[in-house]
Amino acid sequence: MDGPYAGSIALVTDCLIIAVDGPAGSGKSSAARGVARGLGLRYLDTGAMYRALTWWMLSHGVPVSNPAAVAIHAQEPVIEVSTDPGHPSVSVDGADVTAQIRTREVSNAVSAVASVPEVRARLVAMQRAIIARTCADSGGIVAEGRDIGTAVAPQAPVKVYLTASETIRAERRSADLAADPAVTVALTRAEQQRRDRADAAQMAKAPDAVQIDTSALGLDEVIRVIDGLARERADAAWSR
Predict the structure, then answer these.
(1) Predicted confidence band at 179 (pLDDT cuts at 50, 70, 90)?
(2) I need a labelling partner for 130 at 20 to 30 A (CA). Which of 33, 80, 141, 164 fits?
């Protein structure tokens, strides 16, 4: 990426892990990818992993409203994610499902699947392993999701929690689903509210996270703020 974010950085002794949490429509994915590209880091979309498992459940006729049924099958699919911020992708059992996991059907079912303890245990372990492997191989990673700063990587030196008004979030999500003629902002907002309630247990803000309201901010502005926080952390490490 050219511009004010260009140039990679790294901590002296610690891996640079940037945790980006927040609800759907807050701008996590675009901001996290932008920060990762700008700082020369890898990128992990943990939500895509939950979506991939949900897509597999739906495709195999598993009743996602039945936690016991979901738990029984939670270990079956082979899920792989790319950590390239320029080409994020996810595959299930060797098939690329990057597009398929972004449907309304998956969005409306993923909270039920993600709340199952066996699902969370498997995917959080996978996410931690990806972060550890990336830290060993490169300068760091930007991980985004619901509980990065609280559960997946509480040791992350940089934590941000993105928010936005319900209306703005619904408008953004509706734009993402513009190809579906049934989608309206009102419908998206209602589905979003249900998902927020279902996800509440996994969506707590880490005490040391910096909260950023993205309602009135452009993407470049959000990236600039997170980039600045990361550079401050790196500078502090150098000065020790």
Answers:
(1) low
(2) 164
